[in-house]
Amino acid sequence: xxxxxxxxxxxxxxxxxxxxxxxxxxxxxxxxxxxxxxxxxxxxxxxxxxxxxxxxxxxxxxxxxxxxxxxxxxxxxxxxxxxxxxxxxxxxxxxxxxxxxxxxxxxxxxxxxxxxxxxxxxxxxxxxxxxxxxxxxxxxxxxxxxxxxxxxxxxxxxxxxxxxxxxxxxxxxxxxxxxxxxxxxxxxxxxxxxxxxxxxxxxxxxxxxxxxxxxxxxxxxxxxxxxxxxxxxxxxxxxxxxxxxxxxxxxxxxxxxxxxxxxxxxxxxxxxxxxxxxxxxxxxxxxxxxxxxxxxxxxxxxxxxxxxxxxxxxxxxxxxxxxx
Length: 324
Hints:
By secondary structure, this protein is α/β, with parallel strands linked by helices.
């Protein structure tokens, strides 16, 4: 069984290859059981959430990701999310590889948002606002630049120092990057607003969204987590990565409960978009909202891509090795 550490896993997942890989597997489909979610600890001791996320294609590959999410880790200077991924042969059950689950999660999450944006953002979108400055947020400009001509990036985070560091890295990557001092103004100025936080209170308000904006909501994966108020769903055409989003995320559960949104009004999921069964954005003035909670399909696509890259590299090294 191969072992791919964090650099190995990331090296096998460039966005120009990962985004098409996700698209292809959404078109093909695979078996994705409901994720298992378990709470570990108590609020007094620093509760965490453990997710178990399996997926497989019969006759192909199978994988299981374990994810540990501990928001209070920030007080110890640690990332809030840690995960590992095990890839198997789905026909024999033989383990193929152990991969860095953090890298898979971060990169496939950013890639899924960019994939959705191919269908939901304006083709001329150049101004991106990233709300958050953590691991996933740091990858969003690169992912979006793969599918849209992103030039200007603003960053907002509750931690100004962290956001400032992010801005400096973006400038080094060739973006015109700046710190967003006022979130409402930054939202109104953006073509795409992408949120990747662990917020439990709404950050984005529907009244701030301008005609033609695409709003991407990544962070909320439990009923108590929110990145948007109910009005965002009310003024937008709403799309989801999978139907599971309507059962998991406070960004949808709250407007569904208040009557601002009804399930029948959710336009399509990502598989429907990828298969060409829904056109996505229908006009330049439309406000679109994409809510993702992640799916094990994306993990399987990413793990397979990284594993194949490792095998191809090993084969190339063998071919280039001089004969004795």
